């Protein structure tokens, strides 16, 4: 047993080591930055962009980088478990301490969305980290139970042992219900059950730990302190932002157009939301859906402003459950519903630091791209962004969604007029349309599936950038933001591997559309890396067309449609008429 004096020395030494390490890292930050840049390209090409299993019929969602990270984390726990463990009983006790240490990571915040803003990581990275820590914690607990059972008798009638069984069963159950068949089908039930089992497991461990064991008790006290402090801090922040202290509550105005749901959240206090961030929204409508009292859902904020605002706009795909009820409610004439929200969550990508921005969306993935589009145009007009070329490629099944959101694209085209720069081009690829149509010199509706390789190469060549004479002809850095179906993301990762040495970065945004009919339209074939000259010759037709569009940018930019009205009353337009004719 560690004495208090020994524990104090360990704590002091650890704090001193952290301070010295921080000073050294700050002193040699330039060297570390150069080392990071040198290993970035091989990391992206051989680990991050390359799936674990890849063939024409199956592509794994796990990349090699994911497997390396998982193996390193598991190996670290196994190595620490067996380091100088002379007996099975010693290893079992150490497994219990490691289990409690991992518990601290699992209970950092009441909700994982908070960690996205605090740590600056994407939501799926946080979820995967949480799942990995949970699985390793369950494995360590299983090893501790086996080691304890083999070392001495384990009478279940004793209260401490009985609660140990309850804690183990609760932790195991919380891991098992994370199966996609349960999690995706009954998400709200899964979430509340998962949280309840986690709390029950902690209480069971608290009862099981003997009072004389100092280190486990320290872990438990730290865990309880972290949970209480984080809940108090987040609770006060949510209450403040929702105007509980002397202000009216936020209201949610639910609207719809052509099957798409729009929600305008009127806030009681102004909130600054960065591009790409999302909120967790709770809407009180018990008369329409009683379960709404216990449900909250994350939604991407499609509106953007460079200052704090009182209104947030959301674009939602009605699928099943809560979102399907939102579509039904939007068709009734009712007053705005009372709402609460937490956030904004997530991090924002500085797209303005890149000269070429290729934005790729399929279906409702446009919701993740719209705030970045507004931010880029505003940054270009205010001369705060380096971007000289922005190309939005949108893949759709029909024109219904484009007709419902055309007012946003109109605004972007209207604002992109500084010095006749016209940096924005919009290409909408529609499968079910009679024929392609040129809506304006900078917006086209094209029949068929997008040729991703040709589009990627044309933008990477940098010949579509409009420059003044004194500027260099070499292309600067380029970023590709993706919010698309699974098959499109897989194809783009394979293409991006051949361009990492040309200063091209691929980013998958937080929101990705669920599996839909668009996935079945794409048959993924791993592309062979062709020679650079061959690939350029293979896309000559696309280059010629792109050059024609570049010449046409000297004309005054026109919008997709003449817009008037608001979300409640979308006017008749070219896209709307085209969509209606296709429906007929």
UniProtKB/TrEMBL annotation:
GO terms for biological process: copper ion import; intracellular iron ion homeostasis; iron ion transport. Its main location: membrane. InterPro entries: FAD-bd_8, Fe3_Rdtase_TM_dom, Fe_red_NAD-bd_6, Ferric/Cupric_Reductase, FNR_nucleotide-bd. Residues 545-555 have a biased composition (Basic and acidic residues). Residues 104-204 form the Ferric oxidoreductase domain. Residues 263-346 form the FAD-binding domain. Residues 354-436 form the Ferric reductase NAD binding domain. Residues 517-584 are annotated as: Disordered. The chain crosses the membrane at residues 12-32, 133-151, 163-182, 189-206, 218-240. One of its GO terms (molecular function) is ferric-chelate reductase activity. The keyword Transmembrane helix applies. SUPFAM superfamilies: Ferredoxin reductase-like, C-terminal NADP-linked domain (SSF52343). It is a multi-pass membrane protein. CDD domains: NOX_Duox_like_FAD_NADP. It holds the Pfam family NAD_binding_6. This is FAD-binding FR-type domain-containing protein. It comes from Beauveria bassiana.
């Amino acid at each position: 047993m560690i004495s208090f004096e020994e524990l104090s020395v360990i704590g002091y030494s650890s704090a001193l080591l952290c301070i010295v390490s921080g000073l050294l890292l700050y002193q040699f930050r330039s060297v570390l930055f150069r080392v990071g840049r040198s290993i970035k390209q091989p990391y992206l090409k051989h680990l991050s962009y390359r799936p674990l299993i890849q063939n024409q019929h199956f592509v794994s969602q796990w990349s090699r980088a994911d497997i390396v990270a998982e193996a390193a984390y598991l190996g670290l726990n196994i190595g620490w478990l067996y380091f100088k463990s002379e007996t099975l009983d010693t290893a079992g006790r150490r497994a219990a301490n490691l289990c409690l240490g991992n518990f601290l990571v699992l209970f950092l915040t009441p909700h994982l969305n908070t960690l996205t803003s605090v740590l600056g990581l994407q939501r799926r990275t946080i979820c995967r980290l949480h799942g990995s820590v949970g699985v390793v914690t369950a494995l360590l607990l299983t090893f501790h139970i086996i080691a304890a059972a083999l070392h001495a008798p384990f009478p279940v009638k004793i209260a401490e042992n009985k609660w140990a069984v309850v804690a183990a069963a609760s932790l195991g159950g919380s891991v098992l219900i994370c199966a996609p068949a349960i999690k995706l089908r009954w998400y709200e039930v899964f979430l509340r059950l998962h949280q309840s089992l986690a709390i029950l497991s902690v209480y069971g461990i608290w009862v099981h730990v003997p009072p004389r064991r100092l280190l486990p008790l320290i872990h438990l006290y730290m865990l309880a302190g972290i949970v209480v402090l984080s809940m108090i801090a987040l609770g006060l922040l949510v209450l403040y932002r929702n105007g509980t202290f002397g202000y009216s509550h936020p209201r949610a105005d639910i609207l719809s157009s052509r099957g798409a749901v729009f929600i305008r959240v009127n806030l009681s206090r102004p909130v600054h939301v960065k591009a790409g961030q999302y909120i967790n929204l709770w809407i009180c409508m018990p008369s329409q859906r009683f379960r709404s009292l216990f449900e909250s859902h994350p939604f991407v904020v499609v509106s953007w402003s460079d200052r704090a605002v009182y209104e947030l706009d959301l674009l939602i795909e009605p699928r099943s459950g809560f979102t399907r009820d939102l579509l039904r409610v939007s068709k009734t004439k009712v007053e705005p519903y009372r709402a609460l929200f937490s956030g904004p969550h997530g991090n924002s990508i500085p797209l303005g630091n890149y000269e070429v921005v290729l934005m790729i969306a399929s279906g409702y993935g446009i919701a993740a791209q719209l705030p970045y589009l507004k931010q880029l145009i505003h940054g270009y007009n205010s001369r705060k962004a380096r971007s000289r070329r922005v190309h939005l490629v949108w893949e759709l099944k029909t024109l219904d969604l484009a007709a419902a959101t055309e007012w946003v694209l109109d605004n972007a085209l209207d604002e992109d007029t500084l010095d006749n720069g016209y940096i924005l081009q919009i290409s909408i690829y529609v499968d079910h349309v009679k024929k392609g149509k040129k809506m304006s010199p900078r917006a086209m509706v094209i029949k068929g599936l997008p040729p991703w390789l040709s589009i990627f190469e044309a933008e990477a060549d940098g010949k579509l950038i409009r420059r003044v004479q004194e500027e260099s002809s070499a292309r600067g850095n380029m970023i590709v933001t993706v919010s698309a179906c699974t098959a499109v993301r897989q194809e783009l990762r394979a293409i991006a591997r051949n361009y990492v040495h040309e200063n091209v970065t691929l980013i998958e945004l937080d929101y990705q559309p669920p599996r839909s009919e668009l996935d079945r339209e794409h048959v993924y074939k791993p592309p062979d890396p062709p020679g650079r000259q061959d690939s350029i010759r293979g896309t000559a037709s696309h280059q010629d067309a792109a050059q024609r569009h570049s010449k046409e940018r000297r004309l005054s930019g026109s919008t997709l449609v003449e817009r008037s009205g608001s979300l409640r009353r979308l006017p008749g337009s070219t896209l709307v008429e085209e969509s209606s004719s296709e429906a007929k």
